[in-house]
Design goal:
The structure is a single chain. The protein has about 120 residues and is mainly alpha-helical. The protein has one domain: Helix Hairpins. About 80% of the residues lie in helices and about 0% in strands. It has helices spanning about 15-35, 40-65, 70-100, 105-115. α1 runs antiparallel to α2 (about 40-65), α2 packs antiparallel against α3 (about 70-100) and α3 (about 70-100) packs across α4. It is elongated.
């Protein structure tokens, strides 16, 4: 079998250290969503941070179990995060054009006015 050579020797780093790093990234994103009351852009960035911490979990488990499926799932999550960001940014541009404000209430009004 071929041996894969990584930049970091994954056998020397315990799995729990990697999972704790991913958990702390997820918690930072969750706290950013919960305590953010004004900025829609910060909420999008926090959701992205949560998506990437989940994809890091898949990558870490993939590296430790020598299975490629986790990395493929990670690519799927990153693609989903990119689609979510593009939709969110388009809603933000539409909200700014209609109301000259970028907060949650103007975004909700923009969405309701668009569908009505």
């Amino acid at each position: 079998m071929f041996r894969l050579f990584y930049i970091i020797n994954w056998e020397s780093i315990p799995l729990m250290v990697c999972l704790n790093f991913s958990f702390f990234l997820f918690v930072i994103g969750l706290v950013g969503i919960v305590f953010n009351k004004k900025s829609f852009l910060i909420m999008l960035l926090c959701i992205e941070l949560m998506f990437f911490s989940i994809s890091l979990n898949f990558i870490f488990f993939s590296l430790y179990s020598f299975n490629v499926m986790g990395q493929l799932y990670s690519l799927l999550i990153v693609t989903t995060a990119a689609a979510e960001t593009s939709i969110g940014l388009s809603l933000m541009v539409l909200s700014y054009r209609l109301g000259d404000k970028l907060n949650y209430s103007s975004l909700i009004n923009c969405i309701f006015n668009f569908f009505i």
